[in-house]
Amino acid sequence: MDLTAILLVYNPDPEVGFVAAKVMKNEFFDINEWNVAGNLSIDPELMSPFIIRFIAVKQDQQYQMTILLMEFANFGTLFDLIRTQKDIPIPMIRVIMRQILEGLCFIHSQNIIHRDIKGGNIMMHSVPRSGKVILKIADFGEVKQISKSSQNQMKVSVRGTPPYMAPELYFGIGKADTKVDMWSLGMLLYQMLTHTFPFNPTNEYEIGQFLGNEILNRPDSI
């Protein structure tokens, strides 16, 4: 088995139904991911509908495996949409951005920084027979809780996916706050509009040069 596998599991309880199971060896289980995401999911009535809900964590000591049970999103990821749809209509982008911002506002209100906002971590779910798609922020493996005494900032460590990383995260300098998630969302917006980045996303030197020296110009499409 790879380090992590995502499986679709069916629970016969009609109130549960299909759930996603993230399976990994115990040594790769990050208790921080469960503590933060699990706490966000304690009261389903209070949590944001734009965040993937964590249901339970199970550990099997015999096989040294951990299983995270999460809400299942049935419509793929935002990355899939960007990859397959050449021109995403501006009205659709507005709806996408509003939903992600709603989810981020809730996360930030809990003194949490996600630190890995990107298309692959935004799940899409189509409510049966509704004709609507809801976006949900997923993958809390890089989250960081900010204590109120730290004045909503934290010491920086390098975390995230390079093309979406804010300069302070990419260079690992200074302090970071919730603005790093907004930078990542801005890069995601740029990608939705242009299907590219303002730099070569596979060249870390070029990414660093851009983050350190360049000005991000508004795409011609907006």
TrEMBL record:
SUPFAM superfamilies registered for this protein in UniProt: Protein kinase-like (PK-like) (SSF56112)
Nucleotidyltransferase in keyword set: no
Keyword Kinase carried by entry: yes
A single GO molecular function term of this UniProt record: ATP binding
GO biological process per UniProt: regulation of autophagy
Record's GO cellular component terms: cytoplasm
Name of one Pfam family that matches: Pkinase
PROSITE patterns with a match to the protein in the record: PROTEIN_KINASE_DOM, PROTEIN_KINASE_ST
Coiled-coil residue spans: none
Every Protein kinase domain range: 1-222
Keywords assigned by UniProt, alphabetized: Kinase, Transferase
Highest taxon of source: Eukaryota
Entries under PANTHER family matching the protein: SERINE/THREONINE-PROTEIN KINASE UNC-51-RELATED (PTHR24348)
Name the record gives this protein: Putative serine/threonine-protein kinase unc-51
